[in-house]
Amino acid sequence: MFLFFTVGLLQATEKLWVPLGQPAGQMMGEVVSTPDAQGKSALVSNSTPVATETAAPKVKDGHWIYKYTDGTPESEGDYSADKKEGVWKYYRPDGTECREMEFKDGVMTGTAVLWATDGSQKYFDHLSDLIQMAASPDFKLKTLLPYWVDLLGDGNHQLLVIARSESSSLVLVFDQDGHLLDSKPFTGLADDFTFGEIKKGGPVCFGYDISCDVQLGVCQWEFDVWDGSKIKTVLQYQGWYGNNNPFVMPVFREVQGQTGIVTDNGTFQWDETGQTFKKVSNDLATPKAGVPSPVIPTAQ
What is the dihedral of CA 196, 99, 297, 164, to 10 degrees? Predict the structure, then answer.
C-alpha cells in the first residue's frame, strides 16, 4: 500500500508485505479501518477474531483476489497447492495496474511487465536473473519489488527495485537496457517504497524503511534521489514501530512552497541549496487520535 505524492500530482506506492487481507468471505478476523494521514484506509491492530461463513483454507487453491482495506483490488492470481502459479497482477490504490509477474510452483520465473504512472510499460523475460547477476554471489534473491519510473523527470524511465534475501536487501537502479547504474546494500529488510517529485516535472525522490525492529520499537527510514550517476541519500530519520508504537508512513506534502516530507519524527523541507531535506518543524504525521497502530501482515 503506498501513496505517491507529487506537488500538484498524485501517484501511487506499494509494500512488499502486501496483500493486506484475504479474499472476501475468508477473513479470519474483524477488519477495522480508518483513513490514514494520506487519506487511505489502513488496518488497525484491534482486529478481533470472529466466526465467518467461509473459513480461510489452510491450503490456497484457485483464483484469489486480495484487496486494499477500501475494497479496491491490490493483487490477483492463481494458487496451486498453496503456491502462486501463472501470471499475478498488481494494482496501485487508484486502481491502475503497476505490474504483472509470472510464478511457477511459487517461484518467480523472471517474466514481468511493469507500467509507469504515465502509462509507459517495460517487459522483462529474465528479471530475477537480472537482479541476481547484479548482486554479490552470497546474496540469494527471495523476493523483489520492481518499479518502472522516470527518476530524473526527463522522459527516460529507469528500473528501480527493492530486492530482498532472507536477511538483507538491495536497492538497485537499472537503465532501460537492463544495465546496472548503481545499488545500495542494507543488512535489514527494506520495504515501503514511497515516491514524490522534488519539484513538479523534476527528479523523483524515493523513500523506504531500511529495517524495522519490533523489539526496539524503531524503524529506520531513508530517502534517496538518482542524480544521473549514483543513488544519493537526501534524508535519514528514525521512526517508530512495534511495542505499541504506531507504524506511520511518511507523507510527501507541500511545505512553505517547497516539497516536504511529514513523518512521525517531524516535518522536513527540501533545501535547494544543500540538495537535501532539512527538519523545519516538529509537526508529525500520526494516526488518527485514538486509533491503534496498523496490523503488519507477514511478507509473502
Answer: -80
Read off the pLDDT of residues 252-265 as tens digits, 9 standing for 90 and up: 999 988 999 999 89
Q: How far apart are CA 139 and CA 134, in angstroms?
A: 10
- Distance of alpha carbon 162 from alpha carbon 180, whole angstroms: 13
What whole-number distance in Å separates Cα of residue 46 and Cα of residue 31? Answer: 9
- pLDDT tens string 19-44: 434 444 333 333 333 333 343 434 33
Q: Report which residue type is found at 26.
A: Q
Q: Is residue 62 predicted with pLDDT exceeding 50?
A: yes
Q: Determine the Cα–Cα distance for residues 108 and 34; give it in Å rounded to an integer.
A: 34
Please state the domain extents for the chain. Answer: 2-46+66-281
* pTM listed for this prediction: 0.76
Find the distance separating the first CA and the last CA of the chain, reported in whole Å: 14
